[in-house]
Structures are given as structure tokens and as C-alpha cells.
């Protein structure tokens, strides 16, 4: 029969061990009498002596001791629930969740960047008339594609920063993966692959339709410009211009021929002079 | 003529457990397949945290083909506890849970932005996600470990 401690009842540890629970009992503050199963788990995994050694190592900091005992209880409960893997089950599941969430976030960020760019293109296309008039005047088009690209890069960098943070746990993940077996990894990989494939498919669909839509919008906005032009007048204008240009070309050719002839005659004369001079010597 | 004292060396070298415990490594030693003599620290860590008798009882309760995985997980947990006597491997769980929550928040915010863009409610020159965006790349070197949130749900529902 256990002798009650100062609190009025023996702690779960002393009750389990069937011994007297003194006020100096190290485990009494952490194992109340109404939680016998908790102590049984801890006792089964660690043993009383190891727990006492661990508490002694922590010194006199009560907060640290309380936190350590909480973690030990959690650890023992996980080992009781999963006798083979223990806490590794939770770690592995969390790693998989993080990986899936990260990939999903990447896919959504890509989509968001695309829609931002599309939105900017729509805004810039509203000033198409101004743009065309600028072209007529010989001015350079506005360069907003670079800005859209920079937005995309900023978001990608943000996601990349998180990738670096996640990499801090890569060592643990490698240990977990090596221990959890290839079958688990394969099944998770299949889930991941299907998720990634689905994300890629979703991502690919909007760009195709958006590009086509963009092209359609471009053509629809260029159409009024061509409709205002009279084809017959334009042809006549072109013909006149062509005739004029052909005339000018012909005259230029004649002039050049004349020049060539003149040049040849001059050269011959100079050559002859040289010949005569040399002949004297 | 082989002496009787070298019977263990004649059959097999003593495993790390028997070497540490300074006892004869018999042919049916439960530790021998999982604690090779080339890895003495593995058993030393496990013994320091859990104790050889507890590990032996645990291994006897599970199937033989699962024992290697159990030993490896125990070795990892023991090493984690030695490195961090307060939190052990539970600290890693707490940090990972926090990361999951943070990622989920980020994902929700990004999905909300995406919905708005598809409905053409936001202009590209009005960034909204300054708060969440700044939280993505930040790393807190002092995360403030806490016991995982599922502890209160009494995970010890019984072994499988």
C-alpha cells in the first residue's frame, strides 16, 4: 500500500512502482495520480532511472524540466502508438505535407504571375490607338514586358527563399526517408507526381487560351485601321510612286554610265602619259 | 586448438551491444543483427537514453522484419535527445508543424489573390500581399520550440 505524499495522493510513478511517494519525489510534479497510462508509456520506453538521470542533467530550472517532461511524455505516447517508427511517423508525414504545400504554392505563384502579366498586357492594349499613332510617327513602343518579368522574378525569389529555409531540414528528411523504406517513398512520390502533374496541367491550360485570346484582340483592334483605307486609291498611289521611282532609277543609271565613260577616258590619257615618260628613260 | 574463451570470436565477433555491456555475445543475441561492432556509438546512445533492457523488451514485442526499422528510429531519437535534452526529436516535430501552418497561410493568401485576378478585381500596380509576402522568406533562428499541438489530443490510443 503506497503512503500518500504531501499532496494527499501518491503520484502515478510511485503508485506504479508500489512505493512510498515522498515530498522529495522527483517525478511527482510531472506524473499526477490521475494519469497512470502516461507514466506507463514513459516507464516502458525510458525507464525510471533514465528519466531521473535526465532530470538531474537539467539542473534546477523548473521550466526546462517541465518542458522536457512534456516532450518525453509525447515521445513515449508516440512510441506506444507506433511501436516500430515512433516519432518518425509524424516527422515523415509533416515533411510530406510541407513538400506538397510547397509545390502547390509554386504552382499557384506561377499562375498568379501569369495572370498579372496578362492583366498588364490588357491595360497596355487599351492604349493601342496611341501606340499605333506612335508607330506612325516613328516612336519606340512602350516596354512593359520587362516589368512584368520582374514581378514574376520577385515572386519566384520569394518562393526560392522559402526553399532555402526548408533545406535546413533536409538532413533529417534524408534520415527519415532512408528509414521509412522505399515503399513509403514510392507511394508518396506517386502522390506527389500526380499532384505536380495536375498542377502543371492546370498551369498549362490558361496560357494557350490567353495567347490565342491576345492574338484575337490584336487583330480585332488592327482591323479598323485597315478598313479606313481605299484600296483603289492606294493602288494608284503606289503605281505612281513606282513609275516615279523607275524613272529616277533609269536616269541614275544613265548618269552613272556617263560618268564611267568619262573616267575611263581620263585614265587612259594618264596611263599614256606615264607610258611616254617611262619610254624616255 | 581453439580455447573456450574464443568461442564467440570463432562464430562471430561480439556485437556493439555485448561489447559495450562486456558480456558474451551468444548466437541468439537480439542486438547482434542491428548493432554491428563497427558502430559502437549507435548502441551507446540508445543505451544511455532508453536502456538496453527496455530496447530488448521493445524488440521482442515486434515482428523480426520490423526490428531494423525500430532500431534505426530509436537510434535517431536517442541521438536527438542527446543533442537536445529538453526537446529531443519532438522539437523538430514542433518546428515542422509550424512550417506547415505558415505554408498553409501563404497558400490561402495566394489562392485568394489568384481568385481576385481571375475576377479582375486587382490592378497589377496595387500589391496587397505585402504582409504575407514578407513572411515567406523570413527565418526565425529562435523559433521558440513548443510541444506539438497534437499532444493534447492524447495520441496514445493504443498500439497497432
TrEMBL record, chain A:
Alphabetic keyword roster: Coiled coil
Positions of the LOB domain: 9-112
Coiled coil stretches, renumbered: 91-118
Cited Pfam families: LOB
Family: Belongs to the LOB domain-containing protein family.
Protein's recorded name: LOB domain-containing protein 27-like
From TrEMBL, chain B:
Keywords linked to the UniProt accession: Coiled coil
Residues spanning the signal sequence: none
Domain LOB, residue spans: 13-114
Claim: Cell inner membrane is one of the keywords in the record: no
Pfam families, sorted: LOB (PF03195)
InterPro entries from the UniProt entry: LOB (IPR004883)
Residue ranges of coiled coil: 93-120
Similarity annotation: Belongs to the LOB domain-containing protein family.
Protein name as catalogued: LOB domain-containing protein 25
Organism: Salvia divinorum (Maria pastora)
GN (gene name): LBD25
Amino acid at each position: 500500500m503506497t503512503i500518500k505524499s504531501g499532496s494527499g495522493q501518491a503520484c502515478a510513478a510511485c503508485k506504479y512502482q508500489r512505493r512510498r511517494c515522498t515530498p522529495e519525489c522527483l517525478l511527482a510534479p510531472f506524473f499526477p495520480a490521475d494519469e497512470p497510462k502516461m507514466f506507463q508509456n514513459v516507464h516502458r520506453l525510458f525507464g525510471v532511472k533514465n528519466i531521473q538521470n535526465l532530470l538531474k542533467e537539467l539542473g534546477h530550472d523548473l521550466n526546462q524540466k517541465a518542458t522536457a517532461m512534456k516532450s518525453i511524455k509525447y515521445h513515449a505516447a508516440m512510441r506506444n502508438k507506433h511501436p516500430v517508427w515512433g516519432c518518425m511517423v509524424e516527422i515523415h508525414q509533416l515533411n510530406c505535407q510541407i513538400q506538397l504545400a510547397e509545390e502547390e504554392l509554386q504552382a499557384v505563384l506561377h499562375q498568379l504571375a501569369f495572370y498579372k502579366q496578362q492583366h498588364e498586357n490588357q491595360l497596355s492594349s487599351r492604349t493601342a490607338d496611341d501606340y499605333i499613332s506612335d508607330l506612325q510617327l516613328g516612336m519606340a513602343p512602350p516596354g512593359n514586358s520587362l516589368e512584368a518579368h520582374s514581378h514574376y522574378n520577385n515572386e519566384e525569389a520569394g518562393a526560392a527563399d522559402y526553399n532555402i529555409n526548408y533545406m535546413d531540414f533536409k538532413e533529417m528528411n534524408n534520415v527519415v526517408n532512408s528509414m521509412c523504406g522505399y515503399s513509403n517513398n514510392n507511394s508518396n512520390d506517386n502522390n506527389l507526381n500526380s499532384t505536380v502533374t495536375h498542377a502543371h496541367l492546370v498551369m498549362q491550360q490558361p496560357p494557350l487560351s490567353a495567347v490565342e485570346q491576345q492574338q484575337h484582340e490584336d487583330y480585332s483592334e488592327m482591323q479598323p485601321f485597315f478598313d479606313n483605307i481605299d484600296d483603289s486609291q492606294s493602288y494608284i498611289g503606289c503605281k505612281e510612286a513606282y513609275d516615279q521611282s523607275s524613272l529616277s532609277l533609269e536616269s541614275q543609271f544613265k548618269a552613272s554610265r556617263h560618268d564611267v565613260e568619262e573616267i575611263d577616258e581620263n585614265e587612259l590619257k594618264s596611263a599614256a602619259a606615264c607610258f611616254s615618260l617611262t619610254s624616255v628613260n | 586448438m581453439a580455447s573456450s574463451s574464443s568461442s564467440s570470436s570463432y562464430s562471430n565477433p561480439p556485437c556493439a551491444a555485448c561489447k559495450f555491456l562486456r558480456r558474451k555475445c551468444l548466437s541468439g543475441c537480439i542486438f547482434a543483427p542491428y548493432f554491428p561492432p563497427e558502430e559502437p556509438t549507435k548502441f551507446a546512445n540508445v543505451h544511455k537514453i532508453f536502456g538496453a533492457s527496455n530496447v530488448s523488451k521493445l524488440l521482442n514485442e515486434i515482428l523480426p522484419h520490423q526490428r531494423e526499422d525500430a532500431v534505426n528510429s530509436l537510434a535517431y531519437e536517442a541521438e536527438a535527445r542527446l543533442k537536445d535534452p529538453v526537446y529531443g526529436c519532438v522539437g523538430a516535430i514542433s518546428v515542422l508543424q509550424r512550417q506547415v501552418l505558415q505554408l498553409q497561410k501563404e497558400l490561402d493568401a495566394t489562392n485568394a489573390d489568384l481568385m481576385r485576378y481571375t475576377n479582375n478585381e486587382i490592378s497589377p500596380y496595387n500589391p496587397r500581399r505585402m504582409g504575407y509576402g514578407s513572411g515567406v522568406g523570413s527565418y526565425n533562428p529562435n523559433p521558440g520550440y513548443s510541444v506539438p499541438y497534437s499532444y493534447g489530443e492524447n495520441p496514445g490510443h493504443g498500439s497497432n
